[in-house]
Design a protein that fits this description.
The protein is of the alpha+beta class. It is built from 24 helices and eight strands.
């Protein structure tokens, strides 16, 4: 819901241009408005401009249509939005504005809308059969006027589809407009070299399909034999922000013609823009994403949540190298970092996340030669970033993150790739707001593993990227705390933290008379950008959030 109020304001400006000066004035007066709560944004970007323009006027009400509110994953944002519009209309009962909301029945939505002033309608009691029949009749008539093959068939054989065909098709579709629209597109889609069938050939095949799942399976199978099919489909399904054809090609490090080859056969279920550079590749309906991400439905076409790891890596790598067709994240690193962290969070938040195994599969699946930032740098930064994600508390042990972070740092430094120098030097904002406390049981085993890999990293940096470590502070271990800014984090900063952890642990154990060495409690307090590491916890304590 973060962009919801801004989208409404944009639509309001188009429908009622007189509101534009008031929207612009609100943005100038409040520099933090675009990052404010949805309630404040709605109040200043939508309601007040509308009220100001409509004051004293008599007019038919304007209608704001919101479709698929249940598909928004931000449940708290949806609840805040509903609460705010109800409060607004309670204070302004005569304002000429109506919200028309279409949504599936979800408890967090229904519970808030069952109040005075809201009229609820149940579409389950409405049979859409006549509407679907009318939609199909009109759509086929339009297709016949545009398609020479259909026109020639009708001249030779008579009307198509026949009345019996239409009745059978409507019965097969049932009450689903999504299925009706998708089946129509499947039937009349243009023939290609890989699929030379005519619409008349595809109609009987459509009648044999088992609902949407059957249609999706059969349509996707037409391109399944193409190279990079699964990567392309997974990318289209999971991308948070759609890309043009050249953007997808650049992200996956393949050619645009390879993306086009896969997509041309799938135009019944995927919107394919008319040019490679303009327009975005999107799903015709979110039900396709549901199908692809549900293994029992999609089978071998399944897109696992672990694919978010790859997308996260691709976006992270493109921060350090401009890419054709992608946003210029080299000059605007915050854009790339947000995409990278969003996909990583999606992976972490998945119920199917098997962290260690999924990460190992990601490592094993990386090609030896590819024009991309070596993945070790991505994993090093990501393991460090994950220390501050609350979700990880239930998934694993922070000592794994620390030791793997150090190992990947060493492997990255041993890659003589110019992008590694950029990664070591470039400060990035990891967009982690709020207050988080991360604790780790720092054992002697953890210490030995870090001690093994960190000197490797230092030696490789000195050889491959001379001059970098000569400019940084060397920790002695006498410093009780290590303070850093996660909004300005580079690969070198990660090295410096790990060096301080080793040095401080040595001092703490030297001060202790207990043998064998007891575990230390390493704490990391992140508070709105600033992170403080310390060994202030009681030795032998436990992880907590």
């Amino acid at each position: 819901m973060k962009r919801f109020a801004v989208t409404l304001a944009s639509q309001l400006a188009s429908a009622l241009p007189a509101t534009v000066p008031y929207i612009e004035a609100a943005l100038r007066a409040d520099s933090g408005l675009l990052n404010a709560s949805i309630a404040r944004q709605l109040e200043r970007l939508v309601y007040k401009p509308f009220q100001t323009v409509m004051e004293g006027k008599t007019a038919l009400p304007f209608i704001i249509v919101i479709d698929g509110l249940d598909e928004c994953e931000d449940r708290r944002g949806v609840e805040e939005f509903i609460d705010h519009i109800l409060d607004f209309f309670a204070e302004n009962p005569f304002i000429p504005l109506i919200f028309f909301i279409a949504s599936r029945v979800e408890q967090h939505i229904r519970a808030r809308l069952q109040v005075d002033g809201v009229r609820l309608g149940d579409l389950d009691s409405h049979s859409p059969r006549r509407d679907i029949q009318r939609f199909l009749k009109t759509s086929f008539e339009t297709a016949a006027r545009r398609d020479r093959v259909i026109r020639a068939y009708v001249r030779a054989r008579g009307s198509w589809p026949t009345e019996q065909d239409m009745n059978t098709l409507c019965k097969h579709i049932g009450g689903s407009f999504v299925l009706a629209s998708t089946m129509f597109k499947y039937i009349v889609q243009p023939a290609t070299g890989e699929g030379p069938m005519t619409p008349m050939d595809r109609l009987p095949l459509a009648l044999e399909m088992d609902g949407l799942d059957g249609l999706y399976s059969q349509t996707l199978a037409r391109s399944q034999h193409f190279p990079h099919f699964h990567n392309i489909i997974s990318t289209v399904a999971l991308l948070k922000t759609p890309l043009p054809i050249v953007g997808i090609a650049s992200l996956l490090k393949i050619e645009a013609f390879e993306v086009i080859g896969v997509l041309l056969n799938l135009q019944a279920i995927i919107h394919v823009p008319g040019t490679d550079e303009q327009g975005e590749v999107t799903l015709c309906h979110t039900s396709l994403r549901d199908f692809l991400t549900t293994e029992r439905r999609s089978g071998c076409l399944f897109v696992p949540p672990s694919f978010h790891v790859r997308l996260s890596y691709y976006w992270f790598g493109d921060i350090f190298a401009g890419s054709r067709g992608l946003p210029d994240v080299h000059n605007r690193p915050l854009t790339g970092i947000r995409k990278y962290t969003n996909h990583w969070r999606s992976f972490m938040n998945s119920d199917a996340c098997d962290f260690v195994n999924d990460v190992e599969q990601f490592k094993n699946g990386q090609p030896l030669f590819v024009d991309r930032l070596p993945y070790h740098a991505f994993l090093c930064s990501t393991f460090f970033f994950t220390l501050f994600l609350r979700k990880f508390r239930s998934l694993g042990d922070n000592s794994y993150l620390l030791t793997e972070c150090t190992k990947q740092l060493a492997l990255a430094a041993e890659c003589p790739d110019h992008r590694i120098r950029l990664w070591l030097e470039k400060e990035l904002d990891y967009v982690l707001d709020g207050r988080v406390i991360s604790t780790t049981q720092f054992t002697e085993h953890t210490y030995r593993r870090i001690q093994h890999d960190l000197p490797r990293a230092a030696a490789a940096i000195h050889v491959n990227f001379p001059g970098i470590l000569e400019r940084v502070f060397t920790a002695s271990g006498t410093e009780e705390e290590y303070v850093m800014d996660l909004s300005e984090l580079s690969g070198t900063d990660i090295y410096m933290v790990l060096e301080w952890i080793l040095a401080r642990a040595r001092v703490k154990w030297k001060e202790s008379t207990v043998r064998p060495r007891p575990p230390l409690e390493l704490s990391a307090l992140h508070d709105w950008g600033i992170t403080t590491f310390s060994f202030d916890g009681t030795p032998g304590g436990t992880d907590n959030d």
